[in-house]
Automatic annotation (TrEMBL):
Gene3D superfamilies: CheA-289, Domain 4, SH3 Domains. Residues 1-138 form the CheW-like domain. It comes from Paenibacillus polysaccharolyticus. Pfam families: CheW. One of its GO terms (biological process) is signal transduction. This is Purine-binding chemotaxis protein CheW.
Length: 139
């Protein structure tokens, strides 16, 4: 199975390639005052106006200015798509081995890691979209 590696802050995360609909450059996002902090705002994608989610804020990190490396990873969720803003998309990787997240990762990240993937030069937290986006839907 192949994974898409991406960075948020100094952390490396990954999603299974079949969980990614597409990766696009940052688009203009219209902010909404008094909205939920993890919703950066609204953008036009696929001929629809959709909420754009800051993965940085959703993971409890402070927001930062977009750069030329900022990307939107569009993931299918429920009956639609969720655009997630990430700092940088890095590569497509096949991991050599996987481990269960350590207990401190489970508590700190509220179970958003399915597992930790390891390869020769790095490791990445494999995100569980149901947990990650489920918390967004409930809030």
């Amino acid at each position: 199975m192949q994974y898409i590696n991406f960075s948020v802050g100094d952390q490396i995360f990954a999603l299974r390639i079949d969980q990614v609909h597409e990766i696009i450059r940052m688009v203009e996002v219209t902010t909404v005052p008094f909205g939920s902090p993890e919703i950066r705002g609204f953008a036009s994608l696929y001929g629809k106006v959709v909420s754009v989610v800051s993965l940085r804020v959703l993971l409890g990190m402070p927001e930062k200015e977009d750069t030329s490396s900022t990307r939107i990873i569009v993931v299918p969720y429920k009956n639609g798509y969720v655009p997630l803003i990430v700092d940088m998309v890095d590569s497509v990787v096949t991991y050599d081995r996987f481990e269960e997240p350590a207990e401190e990762h489970r508590r700190f990240m509220l179970g958003v890691f399915d597992k930790i993937g390891f390869c020769a030069d790095h490791r990445a937290g494999i995100l569980n979209l149901d947990v990650l986006l489920g918390s967004l839907v409930r809030s």
